[in-house]
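Hi all, posting the design record for the shared folder.

TITLE: backbone redesign
STEP: 1 of 1
STRUCTURE INPUT:
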């Protein structure tokens, strides 16, 4: 019979609470936050790099605030999911399954924005969000998995 470390169990419950709260906040931001209203028409961009290149050219002309917030925000806001998802779901510790589920979830979110007319569905958002998720996944790998493996090796300092 496997005995679970009570500290690990408490940490896992805390991560679940953070995950649920953070997910709820993110859904709010994506669908209602930042003054979003229902758009008159469905808007989407299916041309990869179009929005990213537009923001880069805007930055080269000196307008940096909105492009940086958008680009860095679309990456940064998904980093925590890259850390939490593999911690909470064993199957998502596999890079292939993580990538597949993460990208699929982002596509569902972007499609939801389009269908609800609560923003523009943008393939560049999928790209940037995925970069953020993968950064988080690699942070999870470095900070948790490799540290745990080092701690388990006999005779090796943690």
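Okay, here is what came back for every position:
SEQUENCE:
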């Amino acid at each position: 019979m496997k005995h679970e470390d009570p500290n690990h169990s408490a940490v896992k419950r805390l991560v679940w609470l953070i995950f649920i709260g953070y997910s709820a906040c993110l859904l709010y931001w994506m669908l209602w936050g930042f003054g979003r209203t229902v758009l008159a028409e469905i808007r989407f961009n299916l041309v990869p790099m179009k929005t990213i290149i537009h923001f880069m050219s805007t930055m080269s002309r000196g307008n940096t605030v909105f492009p940086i917030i958008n680009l860095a925000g679309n990456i940064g806001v998904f980093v925590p999911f890259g850390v939490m998802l593999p911690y909470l779901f064993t199957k998502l510790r596999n890079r292939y399954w993580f990538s597949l589920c993460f990208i699929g979830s982002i596509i569902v979110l972007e499609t939801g924005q389009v269908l609800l007319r609560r923003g523009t569905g943008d393939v560049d958002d999928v790209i940037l969000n995925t970069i953020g998720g993968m950064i988080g996944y690699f942070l999870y790998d470095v900070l948790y998995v490799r540290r745990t493996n080092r701690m388990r090796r006999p005779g090796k300092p943690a």
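COMMENT: The two ends are 27 Å apart (CA to CA).
Let me know if anyone wants the other runs.
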